[in-house]
Design a protein that fits this description.
single chain, alpha+beta, 2 domains
Length: 106
Amino acid sequence: MSMCSRCKRLYSLGSRCVPCAKTGAKRRERKRQHPRPSPWARGYNTQYLKARAAILAATPLCAICYSRPATTADHIVPLSRGGTNDIQNLRPACGPRNFSRDNRTD
């Protein structure tokens, strides 16, 4: 007997019990049907790349936590909420802070 890596129930074979294995298969199928658009299609174009390079060259620290080196440029108003790739709408951010912000405005 083994323990399911997802729900911690006991089962006999594999790394997941039957209900969790079926749920995972359904989730993977949905993901295949609706793949994420490319960064270019989402609005990360040449203007963004140039502004990102300028922001990171000018400010080495994350503008959110002020303790880690900035590795990404964060949109203050996200593109999906009407923001732009202008340098005024970008700020330097470390990866963990930028990726945890999701689609929120500050």
